[in-house]
What does this fold into?
Amino acid sequence: MTAHPPREFPIVESYDYSLFGPVELRPLSNIRKIIGRRLHAAWANVPQVAQFDEIDLTALEMLRADLKPKAEAQGIRLTLLAFVLRACAKALQDYPEFNASLDDSGENLILKKYCHIGFATETPAGLLAPVVRDVDRKDLLEVAAAIATLADKARSGRLAFSDAEGGCFSVSNLGQLGGTGFTPTINAPEVAVLGVARAARKVVELDGKFLARPILPLCLVYDHRVVDGAQGGRFMAAICKRLSNPSELVG
It folds into this structure.
């Protein structure tokens, strides 16, 4: 039998998909183009490592139920995301190398003395990342109020450029969309991002008993040029510890 060389396919830019059926050409929005360029640059230039963990939300949900009347009296919707941002702010204080960026030379680490955390928000124009300023200096309800204000501005097209710059760390919460987990991409020049998936009830063993508990999957992705596996594990453990025992996140 005669061996044939492997077939070479044309590059995507010149491929004619209409040869096989009807197609529609839909230009990408300007925001989608910008997002695409930034994500491609991050994926190509940043060596990314992902670590996974999960936490029991029982204590957090009990605390959230206790705080709900106070939040509602102030017109604030207290979500899980507010707790997550506060837990991340605490962990960033403990592990400052995560609250940092590499300089242009790649030889120096710029440690930030402020704590601004971005969160991914789905909008009609695409995925945006508003930034909550000074999360470490805000209490839980202040963080929740800031999240709601920024998310509303993003969805209504009123988000200013200044509302989405200066972030130190990002959180991507896809819990409302379902799924069991995902790996987010670092929003460079930040050095890490936390992915929050959908919580689900699982049977776990506690004190010799098997109980159904709400379990939240988390994924931490970090820049391996700055953070090694041991540091990543400790940082993730710090976040999990605070979300599992959330009382210190209130003030």
